[in-house]
Structures are given as C-alpha cells and as structure tokens.
Amino acid sequence: MKKNTPFDIWKFVDKKDKKSCWNYVGSTFSGRYGRFFLDGKAVCAHRVVYQLCNGEIPSSLFVMHKCNNKLCCNPNHLTTGTNSENQRHASMSGAFNVGKSGVRGVSFIKSRGYWHAQGYKHGKMYNLYTGPSYEKAILARSRWEKLNGITFERI
Ligand SMILES: [Zn+2]
C-alpha cells in the first residue's frame, strides 16, 4: 500500500466555501474526530490539516474547533489553545458540563494524542478510558466516581 503524505488528507475532506464546515469523510475515531493514517499511525485529521496550513503545533498547544464540529477540517475553523482553554471552550459551548480548568483523573497524553481517565482506589490505579474522546474520558471518570461514591472533583 502506498504511504499517505499529509497532503493526501484533502482526499477525505469535503471542501466548501470559507465559512462552511469542511467535514472529514474518511474514517473516524468513534464518529468523533476524523482519523487519518500517517506513517502507520492513526492521527486526528484536524491536527494534520492545521499543521499543513500553519506549520508545526507547539507541543503545549491543542488544536481546537471554533465551530465545535469535531469532524470539521476547515483551516479557518481551527485554532490552537492550551489544554484549559480547550476545556473551557468545550464547556462553554455546552458539549458537556465541566469545571473551568478540568476534571481530576482525566488527562491528555500528548505523546499519543489520547485522553486518559483513571481512578485511584485502595492503593490501586484503574484505567477507565484511553482514547481520542475528551467527553468519553470525562464520562468514564464521572461514572467511576458515582460507582465509588466519590463526589465529582474539580481541579
Ligand atoms: Zn467548522
């Protein structure tokens, strides 16, 4: 199989005018983010688009959707922010209800581009969720807290 270059991503983007969302029509991470294969690794499509248009993403920054459509690959709708800005934006846009700076036990594994939710109980660490969805990580953590009678902690 021929290897993808970052430019191949445009084959999977439904390009429209500047203002509209350009939905990713390739495979996805559970219907959430567009999934693109680069160097044999599955990566988030909107991140590839952002890098093509704007260059490298500083490791401390996240690519966020101004339009809140996670499948959107319109470079005009993508911007970067810090982790807490990303969460605040998602929170404000009503996608889910979280505190301003995030939720305890949920973190982003930058090197892998994945969200990770974990719980700590009786000296043991439990892996609750690993994947591309921030919402699912939060959900896994809140379910675990409910199950263990812990109140939803904010940091
Ligand atoms: Zn959009």
Would you mind describing this structure in some detail?
- The chain has 2 domains: 6-93, Homing Intron 3 (I-Ppo) Encoded Endonuclease, Chain A, CATH 3.90.75; 106-147, no CATH class.
- It has 3 helices and 8 strands; from the N terminus they run E-E-E-H-E-E-H-E-E-E-H.
- It has helices at 45-54, 83-92, 134-147; strands at residues 28-29, 33-38, 41-44, 62-65, 78-81, 106-109, 114-121, 124-131.
- Residues 21, 67, 69, 72, 74, 77 line the site of zinc ion.
Helices and strands in order, then pairings?
Layout: E1 28-29, E2 33-38, E3 41-44, H1 45-54, E4 62-65, E5 78-81, H2 83-92, E6 106-109, E7 114-121, E8 124-131, H3 134-147
Antiparallel strand pairs: 1-2, 2-3, 4-5, 6-7, 7-8
Bound molecules: zinc ion (ZN).
